[in-house]
Write a structure and sequence with these properties.
By secondary structure, this protein is of the alpha/beta class. Helix content is 44%, strand content 12%. The protein has a single domain (9-238), classed as Aldolase class I (TIM Barrel), CATH 3.20.20. Helix 2 links the parallel strand 2 (44-46) and strand 3 (78-82).
């Protein structure tokens, strides 16, 4: 029985923990999931950019899905990210996720090939038509070089299971463009940590987070305070959080955020090649950011 996806609240883009032998560390994965649930997150996303999707085997993605479903126990939806080079492969992964109990999908445009607007829309439609699962389109032209425009979403709006957008264009005016064009037809989820509070204030329904993997309580506090209209309290936490949130917009975001999750006791530094763990000055610089923040963690205000 699938859990209904509301496309609201905080959805961690989960890290994929590995052992020293480069195998999935499912016990540590579940430790992180429990920390997220204890903080009150609203859903899980498996195998995104932070989850090192491009290095995961299909059977590993299914193992992560089954582990997350076991922890969630129907309390929050579990989404699987689909990031494939070919339409046929993307359809196969979507069907596989649905068959194994996923509650929804996050869907990226074609990988590696810079598809034009017609090709991108056709790709999204082709996947959506082959699954009954609700879908969030990941709109991130900064990293993936394909912009899903308002005109393209107008075509996609004909498919009822394309329901949400991870808004990672880094152009905050796009939130207003989408609202002006579609009202509430698409749920909008802010997808850039360093713009998260602003995206929520502009009307995003939720936040797909990265540093939530290491700091779930602080992430949830910001979201809850914004939704309660306690903006001064939210801003105080956000300003404290910003040096950490900036770790999310670097090519080594996986290593940086894994180091943060290690520091807070809910992750490890192991990454999968070609990524390598941080060393030397770079590691010390990132650790300094993390340790400074942890030494000054704010007393969290409860939303009223």
């Amino acid at each position: 029985m699938n859990v209904s996806v509301q496309w609201e609240g905080v959805y961690p883009a989960l890290l994929t923990p590995f052992t020293a032998n480069d195998e999935l560390d499912l016990p540590l994965f579940e430790t992180n999931l429990h920390a997220q649930l204890d903080a009150g997150v609203h859903g899980f996303i498996i195998g995104g950019s932070l989850g090192e999707a491009s290095t995961l085997l299909n059977e590993e993605k299914i193992a992560l899905l089954q582990s997350a479903l076991g922890v969630a126990q129907g309390r929050v939806p579990v989404l699987v990210n689909i990031a494939e080079q070919g339409t046929k492969q993307a359809i196969a992964r979507a069907r596989e996720a649905e068959a194994n109990g996923a509650d929804g999908l996050m869907l990226l445009p074609p990988m590696r090939y810079p598809a034009d607007a017609r090709e991108t829309v056709t790709f999204f439609k082709s996947v959506a038509e082959e699954t009954t699962l609700p879908i969030m389109i990941y709109n991130n032209p900064y990293d993936y070089k394909i912009m899903t425009t308002v005109a393209m979403f107008a075509e996609l709006s004909a498919l009822p299971n394309i329901q949400a957008v991870k808004e990672s264009t880094r152009d905050l005016t796009n939130v207003t463009r989408m609202r002006n064009a579609f009202g509430d037809r698409f749920k909008l989820m802010g997808g850039v940590d360093t713009l998260a509070l602003e995206a929520l204030l502009l009307g995003c329904d939720g936040w797909v987070g990265g540093l939530v993997d290491a700091f779930p309580q602080e992430t949830m506090a910001i979201y809850d305070l914004v939704k309660a209209g306690q903006l001064a309290e939210a801003l105080a936490i956000y300003r404290w959080f910003m040096p950490l949130l900036e770790l999310d917009i670097h090519p080594k975001l996986v290593q940086y955020i894994k180091l943060a999750a290690t520091a807070t006791g809910i992750g490890s530094e192991y990454v999968r090649a070609p990524r390598l763990p941080l060393v030397g000055t770079e590691r010390e610089q990132v650790l300094h950011v993390i340790k400074t923040a942890m030494a000054n963690r704010p007393v969290l205000t409860t939303a009223q």
